[in-house]
Amino acid sequence: MRFDAVTLFPEMFTALTQWGVTGRACERGLASVNLWNPRDFCSDPRKTVDDRAYGGGPGMVMMVKPLEDTIHGIKDAHDAQGIISGPICLLAPQGEIFSQKIASDILSRGNLTFICGRYEAVDQRFIERNVDLQLSMGDFVVSGGELPAMTMMDAVIRLIPGALGDGESAVQDSFINGLLDHPHYTRPEIYENLLVPDVLLGGHHAKIEHWRRQKSLELTLRLRPDLIKSARANGLLSREDEQFLRTL
């Protein structure tokens, strides 16, 4: 999986490329993160990438030409390597809320370019001419698109076969089957008079899976009832699931 990220702060991405699961995936060639600074595509001495907004108002607006020249540079690099350029994604408050399904969709595309905005906004003409999709982490505002981009990359990289030590980990994550994950326990068996559930100690795999499914349903109904409605609408709940939910 190839990512290209247009950012004024490429140093921030070392948190993704040099640490943990994502760092190991990059080291092993399962994923690559290519960083592009629009200032490198500016011809003026000050490397200007922003200016005041027409019509007034607070904050600065990222200019079209430095961003567009950066996109052209990325596409030239793709052409030189025989890569078909994937979608260009702007991280923006008005974007679609990122989800596990979107992470899977991104992985299937093979490559994606993130535009990490800064300042007050990005010139609308750049968006209309170049952007294929817009994504958001939620209904809140952060200082730039770098952290959302890294979070989304992390979610995608986890899904690459071989990225995790145990391939089953990604399959059993929350949201994969439309529900929250079940509770987990490890040693010691007793901690401050709190016990590990007996079913997890018995070694009966069918009973364990049954318990985990019910706990997943129970937790989702209590914390995210909206996911139960969505799972039901998408046919992800069995008759046995529905019977158990009625007992709750």
UniProtKB/TrEMBL annotation:
Highest taxon of source: Bacteria
GO BP: tRNA N1-guanine methylation
Record has Amino-acid biosynthesis as a keyword: no
Keyword entries, A-Z: Cytoplasm, Methyltransferase, S-adenosyl-L-methionine, Transferase, tRNA processing
MF (Gene Ontology): tRNA (guanine(37)-N1)-methyltransferase activity
InterPro entries: Alpha/beta_knot_MTases, tRNA_m1G_MeTrfase_C_sf, tRNA_m1G_MeTrfase_TrmD, tRNA_m1G_MTases_N, tRNA_MeTrfase_TRMD/TRM10
Gene3D superfamilies for this protein: 3.40.1280.10, tRNA(m1g37)methyltransferase, domain 2
Substrates-to-products reaction catalysed: guanosine(37) in tRNA + S-adenosyl-L-methionine = N(1)-methylguanosine(37) in tRNA + S-adenosyl-L-homocysteine + H(+)
EC number in record: 2.1.1.228
Annotated Gene Ontology cellular component terms: cytosol
Main location: cytoplasm
Residue ranges constituting the tRNA methyltransferase TRMD/TRM10-type domain according to the UniProt record: 1-229
Binding residues for S-adenosyl-L-methionine: 117, 137-142
Signal peptide extent: none
Subcellular localization: Cytoplasm
Functional description taken from the UniProt entry: Specifically methylates guanosine-37 in various tRNAs.
Family to which the UniProt record says this protein belongs: Belongs to the RNA methyltransferase TrmD family.
NCBIfam families: PRK00026.1, trmD
PANTHER family given in the database record: TRNA (GUANINE-N(1)-)-METHYLTRANSFERASE (PTHR46417)
Subunit structure: Homodimer.
Protein name: tRNA (guanine-N(1)-)-methyltransferase
Record gene name: trmD
